[in-house]
Every structure is written in C-alpha cells, then in structure tokens.
Amino acid sequence: MKPDAFKNSGLNKLSPAELNALNKWLSFAVPIIASRIQKASPPQTTAAVIETRIDGEFNGWDGETIYRLQNGQIWQQSVYHYHYHYAYSPSVLIYSSGGGYKMKVEGDSDEPVSVQRLR
User: Which tens digits make up the pLDDT trace of 57-92?
Assistant: First the structure.
C-alpha cells in the first residue's frame, strides 16, 4: 500500500500491536477470500482464437449443448439454435465476437453459434 493510501485509510492511527493484529488477520483472510472469488468467477479465456477439436462425437446444436474439447476446455451453447450435423472429433474454431464467443465447427455449413466457457 502506498503511504498516501495508508494515511487516507486511517491505518496510521493504529498502534504497532493493532497493526500486527491486522496483518495477522489479513494473512489468514486474504487467501480464503481470493479462493472464494476464484471459485465464484466464471472461467476466463485468455486466447482471442482457440483452435482445437471436439473430444468425441458432435451431433450439432440443440439449445444448451455442452461440448468437451480435446484441449480440456468445456464450452456450452449460450443462444438457442437447433441444427443436426454429425461428425466425429471435428475441428472447432472459437473466437471472440461482440462481448461473447462464437464456435464454428468443421464441416458444419451453419453459421457459428454463440457459446460460453464452463471450464
């Protein structure tokens, strides 16, 4: 913490014993709070474009379908769209689009479908 922030927060008024007690509490509480925030936060995608394959069968789009990918990620269809197309382990391209993500499946003639990352 910068000196100005320390002073503006009033922490400069604490005695050395009070500061020590606060530091002990923070060293205990901060890791717990950070862990809870991380568990509650949706997974983040760092890559702008993801190229991988579906792990197994692809049967098209059916509302809220969940797709397990060979890179270990799991994505779910986020906007209703129904279209049947069978393929085994097709390549997929996932890319950022308008604040969300779209998935395009190899060999599927339909437009890319909106998806969200679950894991």
Answer: 999 998 889 999 999 999 999 988 898 999 999 999
C-alpha 114/C-alpha 101 separation (Å) is 6
Say which DSSP state 112 is in: P
pTM higher than 0.90 for the full model? Answer: no
Bridge partner list, 96: 101
- Answer left, alpha or beta for residue 56, where phi above 0 means left and psi between -120 and 50 means alpha: left
Residues paired with 53 in a beta bridge: 91
* Cα distance between residue 4 and residue 10, in whole Å: 10
Burial call 66-101: b when 16+ CB within 10 Å, e when fewer: ebebeeebebebbeebeeeeebeeeebebeeeeeeb
What own/partner pairs with CB < 8 Å and gap ≥ 24 does 1-10 have?
A: none
